[in-house]
Design brief:
The protein is an alpha+beta fold and 209 residues long. It is built from three helices and ten strands. 15% of the residues lie in helices and 29% in strands. Strand 7 and strand 8 form a beta hairpin. The radius of gyration is 15 Å and the shape is globular.
C-alpha cells in the first residue's frame, strides 16, 4: 500500500523542504466548507456522546484514556487532552508551521497502537474557532477539505467540528474550541475508523484552564 504524505510527521516534512510555510446539542451540519449557521450548543466536557446521529458525525464509543497532553507534558498546549493507549505524542513546535496565526504544536502518532495516522494539535489566539479550523486545514502538506461541519459546545467553549474529505489519504475529523484545533487523519478509510475512538476521546474529554 502506498503510504501517503499524511504518515510523515510534520517535523520530517519540514526537514525535507527548503522553505518554512509561513456534547452538547449540535446544530444540523452544513454543506461542504461552510461554517454552520446554527447557534453553539450547550454542554460541558464529555458532551456529544457516542452515536450522536448527525449526518457524518456518528461516533464510536471513546477509547479509554491512558495518558494525556497539556501543561507539564511532552506537548505543553493550553488544554489537557487525554490520549489513548500507545498513541505517542511529540512536540512539533520546532517545525515552525504557522498558517494565519494557527500553529502546529503537537503530533500524536497512532502507529505504536497498530493504527496508521496522526492526531495533530494546533493552537490559536482569538475567539473564532471557525476561522482557526479553516486556517489549520490550510496548513501546507497537512491540511484537508471540509465536507460537513456543525457548531457545538466543547468543554464549555463554543466550537466547531468538521468531517474531512478523503483525498490523498483517508477521511478525517477535526474540531476547534478554546484556542485549540485538533485534526485526526488516517492513511485510508479503515485506519481512520480504527483511530476514531481516540479522536472521540479527545473531543469529549478535553478540558481548558
Amino acid at each position: 500500500m502506498r503510504i501517503p504524505l499524511l504518515v510523515v510527521p510534520a517535523l520530517a516534512l519540514l526537514t525535507a523542504c527548503s522553505g518554512t510555510p509561513t456534547p452538547a446539542t449540535p446544530a444540523p451540519p452544513t454543506s461542504s466548507g461552510a461554517a454552520g449557521s446554527g447557534p453553539a450548543g450547550s454542554g460541558a466536557a464529555g458532551s456529544g456522546a457516542a452515536g450522536s446521529g448527525a449526518a457524518g458525525f456518528d461516533d464510536p464509543a471513546p477509547a479509554a484514556a491512558a495518558d494525556k497532553i497539556g501543561p507539564g507534558t511532552a506537548c505543553p498546549i493550553p488544554a489537557t487532552i487525554p490520549t489513548a493507549a500507545k498513541w505517542k505524542p511529540k512536540d512539533a513546535t520546532s517545525a515552525n508551521l504557522t498558517t494565519a496565526g494557527v500553529t502546529l504544536r503537537c503530533e500524536i502518532d497512532a502507529k505504536p497502537s497498530g493504527v496508521l495516522g496522526f492526531i495533530r494539535v494546533y493552537t490559536y489566539d482569538g475567539a473564532d474557532p471557525t476561522q482557526a479550523l479553516t486556517a489549520a486545514l490550510a496548513t501546507p502538506g497537512l491540511g484537508g477539505t471540509k465536507t460537513t461541519d456543525r457548531r457545538l459546545t466543547i468543554a464549555g467553549k463554543p466550537g466547531i467540528e468538521a468531517t474531512l474529505k478523503a483525498e490523498s489519504s483517508g477521511p478525517g475529523r477535526a474540531f476547534a474550541a478554546g484556542g485549540v484545533v485538533l485534526v485526526w487523519r488516517g492513511v485510508d478509510t479503515e485506519e481512520f475508523q480504527s483511530g476514531l475512538p481516540a479522536y472521540v476521546l479527545a473531543r469529549t474529554s478535553i478540558t481548558f484552564p
